Amino acid sequence: MPLIKYVDHSGNEFEADVDVGKTVMEGAMDNMIDGILAECGGCCSCATCHVYVDEAFLPITGTAEGMEKEMLSAVNDPKPNSRLSCQIVVNDEMDGLRVEMPESQY
User: Fold this and answer.
1) Which end of the chain has less neighbouring CB within 10 Å, N or C?
2) The domain containing residue 61 runs over which residues?
3) pTM (2 decimals)?
């Protein structure tokens, strides 16, 4: 079970073991980690699960495309490493993945 690190806008770090096949968003919700609101429940239609992926993991998580990329155009402070955590499906290679949550989601 990969360990995912969630970092809030103040730099506080929270760790959660997330089952392979679940999303990074589900890992946060299952472990009651603040900063990922997930108002649409993971349907890629609200962008309230916006995160910044640690650049070292971008080759594994990939970049936003299609509908996700369109949704990210509406968030505050989008960056090249912005992703919707509902669209990142956890796999074994993501052990140690670090995602930062923007201040706008608090």
Assistant:
1) C
2) 3-105
3) 0.95
Two tokens at 3?
Answer: 């360990």
- State the DSSP string of the chain: --EEEEE-TTS-EEEEE--TTSBHHHHHHHTT-TT---TTSSSSSS-TTEEEE-GGGHHHH----HHHHHHHTTSSS--TTEEEGGG-B--GGGTT-EEE--GGG-
pLDDT per residue, tens digit, the chain (106 aa), is 999 999 999 999 999 999 999 999 999 999 999 999 999 999 999 999 999 999 999 999 999 999 999 999 989 899 999 999 999 999 999 999 999 999 988 7
